[in-house]
Amino acid sequence: MAHEMVRCPTTRSGRCFLLAVVFQLFLSSFASARLSPLPNEVIAGDRFREVEQDGVVPVQEVDRTYFLPNNSIPTHYSISLRTDIHNDVRTFDATTWVYLTVVEQTDRLTLHVQELSIKEVTLYRVPNSGGTPIQIDRPTYTINIVTEHIVFRSASQLPLGDYALQVSYSGSMRNYQSGYLISRYRDTEGLWRSVGTTHFQATLARRVLPCYDEPALKATFDLEITHHRTYSAIANMPRKSLGVDPTNRDYLVTSFERTPRMSTYLLAFAVTDFVKKGNSLHEVIVRSNAEADADYAVEVGASILERLGMYLDLSYYDYMPKMTSIAVPDRGTGAMENWGLVTYGEPSLLYNPAVNTYRNRKRVTTVIAHEYAHQWFGDLVSPQWWEFIWLNEGFATLYEYYATRLALPGDEYWELFSGEVTQRAFQQDASETIRPINWNAASQDDVPKLFDIIAYQKAGSVLNMFSKVLGETSWRQGLKAYLTDRELGAATEENLAEHLQRAIDGTDILPANANVRDLLASWTDGPGFPVLNVRRLYRDGAIILSQQRFLAEKVLPTGHVWHIPYNYAYKSSPTFYDLEQYEWLSSRAAKISTAIPDDEWVVFNRQQTGYFRVNYDARNWELLTEALLERHNDIHRLNRAQLIDDAFYLARADLLDMAVVLRMMQYLRSERDYAPWQSADKVLSYLYEKLRGTEHEHALLIYIDGLISDVYATTPVDTIDPSETTLFKYLRQLITAWGCRIGYKDCLERSREALRKEFVPEQGATVAPVHPDVRAVVYCYGLQEDSAAEFQGIYQRLMASGNQAERTDLIDALGCSKNPADIKTLLATVLFSAMPDSNFVYLSEERGRLFQAIYSGGRAPINAMMETLSDAVTVQQMMAIVGEGTITNAITNIAQRTNNAEEMAQFEAMLTALNGSLSPNTLENAREMAASRTQWFSTAEALIVGEFLERYNV
């Protein structure tokens, strides 16, 4: 529902603006397993249990007791915090002054806290004329640990006006992303060092200070940190002063400049013994023994930040005086966009070309672009409430790719958007229980669940679609107006739509009587996405278009209608690069007239910029297949990828015959572009996972060989050329991984030899390191039964490496070993690593990654893992170290890879041995999962696949 907003003077200062914030907040409160031989780069999203009924947007009851009452709002925080992180002390002391305005007479001030021990509270009245606050009370307080509210009760009613609440307290640190965090790393002498950083999104600032921890309740912040003199402190803003602590000369007090108005979740600081790279405008903070690995981030980050500012016509430095990025050790691969101080797990910021791969480089580049895009989308303008978190994450997902096109066009990362974002979103968004983009959290605990594939990949895809529909000029004009109008404040979808509409007023971009708000809402208010059915009449170009919700497993009636912007290209008019001309399907079905000759193919959704699948009548699918087999380059590479991806998932949903997919994919023997192969990889991985170890496996391998053999000859598995493009590297890894996987002798022998030359060269021979860009395939498939020395060499490198991305790659490689003894030894190191002063050192997430590497490494590693897990004592010891969840996850993944009677017998023997170690429910679920895999062979899909492969081989 649209509401008239409170309007204030353009300065947006004083009481009027504060009331407007409250009013707007009040309104808003109502308003996979790795099957491919390629690395797993999937971020899991959450599924929601709400179902659309008859076109009505699904709703859920929201527990409003979690909301603040809004009888007072913050204006400023002044925080003094003392930390002894240098000694690994995991507590801190602090005093925070909360400056606030009472906007409704009350005797209660309600803020957020979580696990803070309150020591003393004093309430002051702030004179209207300024000056020193006047103490008026020592309020009592109560804490609700469920809602995380702290209610300060005054002895009398507080009239409207300005106040200050002084709170002294202590808090604790954790070693995961929750408030003020502890991380540890080994220095150059091998000694453990502790550092402190923060992560406050979404509702975790309350773990460090009592605050109004809701995104629209912005304020300014002053911060000072007392820390040991061997450490230094950084924060959102530049340092204002540095002095000696008058109570202890071994400590320093670092004070920072005042921040702009911002949400509490964007406050950030760090206390470390790290070093700085870069300059005062753009710097990277990193541990000293990884200093050289920060050079790339310094250079590329500065370029991306500048290019984004030019693109939006709003320089970052118009709002913030500096940008600091910090690489946090042993914090996984995530990142957080704190305004002016972005935090990263080391693999997402550090890149060393000597040991890291082209995929690591891509990750670093795009994650930096994602977080820097947030400096505008999320930091300068924040979501009014968490249901609009997609206004942060959708834009950041879009520009994590597009910003690299602006700053580093030669890296071709924008070409990956369709496959990595849109097609990935389709997979989860095809669920019956998926949520729509606009979706409020039922409770405070549900807020983190909104940070899912819908907020990121789907929202990014929908925004990309509208950017193409509205055109580059109007899109950028609308974004600038949106950002400048809402700057230092909060926004809703309606605010965005309003400014995009103004940017196109007076043009004929949209159909008559259409507006951006209604068009956008059809994509954000309804769950799922449509399939556009194209039924050609083959009579003077006539086509019947219709739409229905695409679901992976069933067809359900729905009253929801999407406004679908569509375009098309055909044989005699291959206008695949014209992305500014659209027509609209805004009804369930429509008959259109075209100039397409009846004997020519047609492709809808040029370059797959629209967020929908496309299905065709049987004849057009046949025309497309013939075109691909004869002259595949007549169809744009992204549309070739789209055809494979759409056809495969349409077949999985019983909307198309799987034989259409398999026949169409035969053209791939001539394909040299990565995007279509990226789509094909999903098809081949699905079929391989189903048919491996069965009577149909050999037929499938022959089919795959027919597709890749010619391409394989052009993609060397063990060498690189400096002139290779990024997308060629992606293609090489995909093709050679399949070549080795299906048993190409050349691939296996080259991998084996390259690995030997690096780790056990012949006497007198020079060590020949494998280039990082081919290491994934060479290491994995070079570890055959007789490569124990090479296995030990890789493991020793893992233990010696301080580069977290390299360590992950090495763990993945070790999991591929075909030698059962090596796998058992690898699992034993998990036990050894728990011993005091162990030489087997893993980072916090690496033990779990080791299990994943083994069950993803092939049948031989799985068999060795099952033998180890069949020992009850070993399992109990393992669970004490890695947790029951890691073991249960391994069992589940083994069940998903159990394909025949022999494997089922091995699996059952392991489950029997696990009686008493895991719950009966866990074991029974695993049995049912493994047993259900045989049921696929009685489906029509399986019979069609088997028939096709049998005929193909004949």
TrEMBL record:
Zn(2+) binds at residues 370, 374, 393. GO terms for cellular component: cytoplasm; extracellular space; plasma membrane; side of membrane. It is a lipid-anchor; GPI-anchor. It catalyses: Release of an N-terminal amino acid, Xaa-|-Yaa- from a peptide, amide or arylamide. Xaa is preferably Ala, but may be most amino acids including Pro (slow action). When a terminal hydrophobic residue is followed by a prolyl residue, the two may be released as an intact Xaa-Pro dipeptide. It holds the Pfam family Peptidase_M1. One of its GO terms (biological process) is peptide catabolic process. Keywords: Aminopeptidase, Cell membrane, Disulfide bond, Glycoprotein, GPI-anchor, Hydrolase, Lipoprotein, Membrane, Metal-binding, Metalloprotease, Protease, Signal, Zinc. The keyword Hydrolase applies. SUPFAM superfamilies: Leukotriene A4 hydrolase N-terminal domain, Metalloproteases ('zincins'), catalytic domain. Residues 601-929 form the ERAP1-like C-terminal domain. Binds 1 zinc ion per subunit. Residues 74-266 form the Aminopeptidase N-like N-terminal domain. InterPro entries: Aminopeptidase_N-like_N, Aminopeptidase_N-like_N_sf, ERAP1-like_C_dom, M1_APN-typ, Peptidase_M1, Peptidase_M1_aminopeptidases, Peptidase_M1_dom, Peptidase_M4/M1_CTD_sf. Residues 296-523 form the Peptidase M1 membrane alanine aminopeptidase domain. The active site is at 371 (proton acceptor). Its main location: membrane. This is Aminopeptidase. It comes from Anopheles atroparvus (European mosquito). The lineage of its organism: Eukaryota, Metazoa, Ecdysozoa, Arthropoda, Hexapoda.
